[in-house]
Amino acid sequence: MTQKDITFVADFLTEHFNEAPELYNRKGKYFNVERVGQYLKDEDDDLVSPPNTEGNQWFNFLKNSTHLKESPLLFPYYPEKSLHFVKRQMERVIDQCLQKPADVIGKSVHQAVRMPLYKTSESEDSTPQLFKLPFLWNDKTSSIHYVLFTILENSISKIYILRRHTDTSRSVSNGILAVEFGNFLNNSISDSSDSRCYSCLDAHFYDDETVTVVLKESMEQEGKERVLAQLPLS
């Protein structure tokens, strides 16, 4: 240890473990506890060494603000309590805030359409994930909601585009379709159909009229090609 380290430890002990006569009536040792650890105790007792908020700019600002002093939008401060206590208080308030929206939203959601995409075996074995997490896009101009997704089994070269009108009482033509990439990047029709097959790594909407896809060459070999393509929805 360097002399600087020793000095730091000595200053720490001097500051935090001096005798504290004002604590003699408490149970346990008559010393100030380490000031960080007291905040982490999972208990509702008051802190042994509460922080000194004198001169704190935020508290002074609140104290001098007529509108913010009693504002229900500000979470109350508990200078005598640990972080565990504050965490429980905050969780209780957040749960209370979210309960009403959850009830309202839950009662308003209903099934607009049911569309079977694939079947899985009914065995008790765990079913592999076949449905890759979709990307959602809302075309506000046409009031149409799009979902891009892939199915990870025999159709890795396809992306699926599902579209629904945001007004569930209306429908749009071609509610779901698949775009297959396959070997469309072959240089000529003489290329082998299996020589340059591409699968989709990712797909996002670029704007209301364009889809951006990242393609990967499917052949098991070194130096696989990656292609960034933009496809018009039309």
UniProtKB/TrEMBL annotation:
InterPro entries: APC4 (IPR024789), APC4_C (IPR056358). The keyword Electron transport does not apply. It comes from the Eukaryota. Residues 136-234 form the Anaphase-promoting complex subunit 4 C-terminal half WD40 domain. Keywords: Cell cycle, Cell division, Mitosis, Ubl conjugation pathway. GO terms for biological process: anaphase-promoting complex-dependent catabolic process; cell division; protein K11-linked ubiquitination. GO terms for cellular component: anaphase-promoting complex; nuclear periphery. PANTHER family: ANAPHASE PROMOTING COMPLEX SUBUNIT 4 APC4, ANAPHASE-PROMOTING COMPLEX SUBUNIT 4. This is APC4 protein. It comes from Phaetusa simplex.
